[in-house]
Amino acid sequence: MYSVISDVPALSADGMEMERRVTVRLHILTKDGAYEKIEDAVRKVMDTLGFRRYQSMELAEKHAFVKIMDFRTGVEA
Predict the structure, then answer these.
(1) What count of Cα atoms within 13 Å lies in the side-chain half-sphere of residue 25?
(2) How many C-beta atoms lie closer than 10 Å to residue 10's C-beta?
(3) Closest to 71 in 3D by CA, of 6, 1, 9, 8
(4) N or C: less crowded end of the chain, CB within 10 Å?
C-alpha cells in the first residue's frame, strides 16, 4: 500500500517551477515480520525511479507486522 504524503515545489526560477519534492509512504504488511526481501525489492525499484529512502519505522499489530518507509525525490532527497 502506498500514498503520496507530500508534493511541493522545491525549486523555482523566474516564477517557473523547476523541481518538485515528492514524498511517498509505503506500507509493507506481513503476517510473520519477514519483509526484508520485499523491502530490498522496493528500495531497488524506488532507486531506479529517482527516490531515496528518507525514513522508516516498524509496527507490530495483533495479526500483522508493518514496515513503513518514506521515500523522497527532488532537492535534498
Answers:
(1) 12
(2) 16
(3) 6
(4) N
Tell me the average pLDDT across 7-19. 83
End-to-end CA, the chain: 21
- For the entire predicted model, the pTM comes to 0.81
What rounded mean pLDDT belongs to the chain? 91
pLDDT in tens, 43-62: 999 999 999 999 999 999 88
Residue with cell 495479526: 63
Instruction: Judge contact between 34 and 18, C-beta under 8 A.
Output: no
Sheet of strand 16-30: strand arrangement: 2-13, 16-30, 65-73, 52-60
Distance of CA 25 to the CA centre of its chain: 4
